[in-house]
# Entry
Amino acid sequence: MVHSGRATVAVAGTRVRLVATGRTAASWVTVVGDLTNQGTVYVGDRTTVNAAGGAHTYIGHPLVIPAAGGQPNFCNLREMGGPTPYDLYDIWIDADTAGDAVTFNYGVR
# Structure
């Protein structure tokens, strides 16, 4: 079965969980940056962060803004074995710009 969701970074530089509620098991996850984003969104674990300052440093997979007319960037967390290798509650996002968001699809065996 496939499920969908959306997560928004309210304050740039302050990571948020992909899902706000407790354990959400998934066999695979695809995270897509919104086309309306104004900056880069970063996807990763609890260490994901965009450290604002003179030089951008980050931890996490960056979803950059596509060129005009381009396709949105995405991050696939593919099935690695076992029935539910991912917990969406343990996947985090951060962003360069407040209000930037991601949508995501995930599947459960």
Q: What stands out?
A: Residues 2-107 form one domain.
